[in-house]
């Protein structure tokens, strides 16, 4: 579409990128057909095409409004529209640019600032999150239902990890909330990789990937976390680590963006590009290995439904990869209708937009349970916690189910 940025917009750091994205859009509207919020609300302004037009108006000199901010906030950033778009519009990058400019012009009401600042103070900090989680579990029975659903009754302790003993070595992002909510996920991943002759080199200095800050009005803080992780990983990368493995697809999607987001940083552009090249979701590593040597033996008669997170299928373009790997290992998977739609977790969306998030979760659980599975598997801690909070069919990370099937031998 034709675009004429205002003089102010031309001064923005990502002005050329925004203009290029806007010019790519042909206003076809195919994106609305697969947009979860448009399906729920039926409002053009709550679909990708409408949001693009609002950002275009803003960057051409229009006024930022609280209504515009609400419509942009309601976007899940699921990137379903990018998968659907025939023109290849890089929607999520334009959304980041638009949100940042609206935030710069408007700020936020006190309650919203407090909520977002609180989330940023807790979620990326494992020690703080772990402490508050333990308190929440202790008082869980007396909490309001909306909060109680987000707190698991108990967290299982992680099993031991194998020693670093193989020539082939990878790094693994520990994450920020996963070590507390599902501490055995990375441990099981390390054990499965060890059986395939791959050791996980621990790098404790690496922390939150930066996505939480970046998507909660603190983009520079998110990039600072990215730089810290790059510094932490770089010695092991120079020593020959062949991949940086993520077991949370949300983190993986953001780490793969490091190269793009830091391309204008002379001190980190090269390193960030290399880190993004090495970033792999766990399934990208496993699918290329001789899985038949694992002799996996899933429990007979048990049916599994797999929820493919948006960050895996739309952001990382790995739709069907985990399902194919699980079938290759002998798991019996049920069909899941509308598998392309978001579950409503979307990082902190379930907290900042609870009503829409719950509607999406209920719809997703209905779809996942339509094949009457015994258990649901997924590939992202946010989706796992969100779906399991419905209190219906149990939800686990898929690599834990693989590890258990191997342990049964």
Structural write-up:
By secondary structure, this protein is of the alpha/beta class. Among the domains are: 9-106, Fumarate Reductase Iron-sulfur Protein, Chain B, domain 2 (Orthogonal Bundle); 296-407, Rossmann fold (3-Layer(aba) Sandwich). Helix content is 50%, strand content 7%. The chain has 23 helices and eight strands. The chain has helices at residues 15-24, 36-41, 48-59, 66-73, 80-84, 91-106, 110-122, 126-138, 145-148, 178-181, 184-195, 211-214, 219-238, 249-255, 258-261, 269-278, 282-286, 310-315, 321-328, 349-352, 354-369, 381-388, 398-407; strands spanning 168-172, 198-201, 244-246, 279-281, 303-306, 332-333, 375-378, 395-397. It has a four-stranded parallel beta sheet with strand order 2-1-3-4. It has a four-stranded parallel beta sheet with strand order 6-5-7-8, with helices on both faces. Helix 1 (15-24) packs across helix 6 and helix 4 (66-73) runs antiparallel to helix 6 (91-106). The longest helix is centred in the middle third of the chain and has 20 residues, at 219-238. The radius of gyration is 21 Å and the shape is globular. The termini are far apart. The model has no long low-confidence stretch (mean pLDDT 94).
Topology:
Layout: H1 15-24, H2 36-41, H3 48-59, H4 66-73, H5 80-84, H6 91-106, H7 110-122, H8 126-138, H9 145-148, E1 168-172, H10 178-181, H11 184-195, E2 198-201, H12 211-214, H13 219-238, E3 244-246, H14 249-255, H15 258-261, H16 269-278, E4 279-281, H17 282-286, E5 303-306, H18 310-315, H19 321-328, E6 332-333, H20 349-352, H21 354-369, E7 375-378, H22 381-388, E8 395-397, H23 398-407
Parallel strand pairs: 1-2, 1-3, 3-4, 5-6, 5-7, 7-8
